[in-house]
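Example 3.2
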Amino acid sequence: MKALVKFAHEDGALEVRDLPDPVAGPGTVLVRVHTVGVCGSDIHMWHDSQSASSKGVLPVTLGHESAGVVAAIGPDVTGWSIGDRVVCETAASICGVCALCRSGRYNLCPWREGYGLKRDGAMAEYVVAEPRVLHRIPEGVSYEAAATTEPYAVAYNAVVERAGVKPGQLVVVQGAGAIGVNALQIALLAGAGTTVVLGTDVDEHRLERATGLGAHHVVNVQREDAGALLATLHDGLGADLVVDATGVSAALQQSMELVRPGGAIAKVGWGPQPLGFTLDPLVKKAVTLYGCYSHTWTTWESVLRLFASGRLHPEAIIGGAYPIEEWETAFGAMQRGDNVKSVLRMPFGLETEGAGKTGRAGEAGRAREGAR
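Structure, written as tokens:
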């Protein structure tokens, strides 16, 4: 099978390789991958600029935002059939017995191994999965749309499950990448009264997309003063919630400036850079800082229901679908800010192309320029 492999801790050490097809062993299923999303973490892996804690075992196949079909079922697996359309959570393995796993917070399991990091991921024709991480793709949701479930689940966890945004609140989102734009959509669904999305020069196209998705204000922080804008909104005291979706450590300093006294910051983005500023504003303002990591079963099911009902529009963030051989073009389009989200298409049999016809989710991601 073809697979996109990171083979060394060096900038640019990615290549498509021919690997043996994996096999479904006891207690696992084999998923034939149709579409897989490109994450910002994949781009960091491309340039070997990921956080030290994200440096896994090499060589490793990248990819953790997948949609496909069950291709084979191993011994001792029940409840699944060959041909079932599925998405796959990122926690490839967990211990299952620690206090966090037993209480349903397996996303925080200290022994968790994630796809594309410590376990071979889904930027390949096939991926092996335990049934506990599989979710059925609802009828009417395309593979391309379903492949965005994971980044939407990240945003849902941060905005709803962790920070608990309330109707009428002022929400600021730092970063106009996929997680930031998804956080905007989730905040609007949750009833945010006013939303502001912040970006930089590279985000010009993505800020336009955020406006199209309902952002009340967008700010290029390299050209405009976000604080001055917030002083004119609501009571002028700042944001009820700031969502840091940047992946830059210094963004936390801006978060502390923009949040209101008694407000909250939901930190989603990873940033390997050391902090060069004081955290005293967190104390002075009595701010709640939420670390937001990954997601669980209920998060995924909530997002998939929102896809099925048409209340979320994943096709709006997909800027292009590319064959795996054109991975560098797909990665580059996201890095330059041309696409909010790129997805890779795996070689896939025509006999399954019609499964789960598009319906509400649309096929905008199928054409390379279709969602721009």
